[in-house]
Fold:
Amino acid sequence: MKLGAFSVSLAVKDIVASKTFYESLGFSLFAGDIEKNYIIMKNEDSLVGLFQGMFENNILTFNPGWDANANALSEFDDVREIQEQLKSKNIPLTSEADTSTKGPASIMVTDPDGNLILIDQHV
Structure:
């Protein structure tokens, strides 16, 4: 199962303070819009998403179809295929993708310790 690019999506209280903090760790702005309360910070191949007021807890995020630079991959496991593989392993899904569609879609699962995992396909 190929899950694509990995990042941590952090629920932050003050996006400006968080941006400044991660910049001090060597991260730089990669994507997003601070005016809309979300940005993606990058340090080499490490990605951290900062989201103010969008969700309650931190989320592990995978992006099928993208590499660490958000470049589209020619070959990848579609999120709907990943969904079917998880279902075949009796892993309950928190949210599902519509299998009658193609292109962008997402699913969510929760690990045994309550951590949310978002598998979010943009291509």
